[in-house]
Design brief:
There is one protein chain. It contains 7 helices and 9 strands; from the N terminus they run αβββαβαββαββααβα. It is about 35% helix and about 15% strand. The chain has a 7-stranded mixed sheet, sandwiched between helices. By secondary structure, it is of the alpha/beta class. It has 2 domains: about 50 residues; about 230 residues, Zn peptidases (Aminopeptidase). Helix 2 links the parallel strand 3 and strand 4.
Length: about 300
């Protein structure tokens, strides 16, 4: 073998050895990549703190999950507006007092009497019912004195701040009052709106003062049969006259009329005076409503 052939043979051997090394190295690299990919798939996904996730989102509460109390929201001054729940049925009856603060303290006092009454014995509440009581929708007004307490801290009449024939300039008797800058501009009215929108109560009784009458609700139409029947049941049991429509003066932005617009039968119960709760009469009225909606 001459020198030229020896050199060519050595070159060939080097090329073969280099190819084997290249193939072996590529195979090892591929194994490493596969191993890293498998480890990444098995490792839990990293999350950044503060990112939204389904686990961080509170589930919407159902009736049974509300417990004994619900904070609807806060007043202009930051006082809590609290609802108390009795019974755990799917048919909810809503009782509301204190809309006009210290101008009609009998309404909040009556609602508080019902809270104490059902807390002591809720046997009158049928299994299919839940009774929700909001004793004081206007806590800021309750802290004022006299007629000034009719209004919240923004000097708005809350019973003129709901979305039914709303007007920025409203009337109470012969006095001009504020209905707010727009429907639900006031946090107290907005809190009640949000509760009604969320839970869709089946009926509502709202106490005002003072006339000693019961009125069904309607928004720019005639009252529904359900509202008329609700008013008749309450009035008959309580011994109050039931009237078809309040026409002493124009009412705009009214709470119970807004509820009627939302499909909730609601009545206004005007107590006879601003200080007396007339417990016996109103206990009979509420019990008649509960009997009407019980299975």
């Amino acid at each position: 073998m001459n020198t030229k052939n020896i050199v060519l043979g050595l070159i060939a051997l080097l090329l073969i050895a280099g190819g084997v090394y290249f193939i072996t190295q590529q195979s090892q690299d591929a194994v490493v990549v596969v191993q890293e990919t498998e480890e990444a798939a098995e490792a839990p996904a990293e999350t950044n703190e503060g990112e939204d996730s389904n686990e961080d989102t509170a589930p919407e509460m159902t009736g049974d999950e509300r417990g004994e109390e619900t904070v609807l929201g806060t007043s202009v001054n930051g006082d809590e507006i609290v609802a108390y729940h009795f019974g755990s049925g799917e048919t909810e009856i809503l009782l509301i007092g204190g809309t006009h603060g210290s101008d009609a303290p009998s309404t909040a006092a009556l609602a508080e009497e019902f809270v104490a009454y059902f807390a002591a014995d809720d046997s009158a509440i049928a299994d299919n019912l839940m009774v929700t009581i909001i004793p004081n929708l206007n806590p800021d007004g309750a802290e004022k004195s006299g007629a000034a307490g009719r209004f919240n801290e923004n000097n708005v009449d809350l019973n003129r701040n709901f979305d039914c024939e709303w007007s920025e300039t409203a009337v109470w008797r012969q006095q001009e009052v504020s209905g707010g800058s727009k429907p639900f501009s006031e946090p107290e009215a907005a809190a009640l709106r949000d509760y009604v929108d969320t839970y869709s109560p089946n009926a509502a009784v709202v106490w005002f003062a003072s006339e000693g009458k019961v009125y069904p609700s309607a928004c720019a139409t005639t009252p529904s049969n359900a509202s008329v029947q609700l008013a008749a049941a309450y009035a008959s049991a309580a011994g109050y006259p039931a009237e078809a429509e309040f026409d002493a003066y124009a009412i705009t932005g009214d709470m119970v009329n807004w509820m009627a617009k939302e499909g909730v039968p609601a009545i206004s119960v005007l107590l006879t005076d601003r200080t007396n709760t007339e417990w016996t009469k109103n206990e009979a009225g509420v019990m008649a409503v509960l009997a009407q909606y019980a299975n």
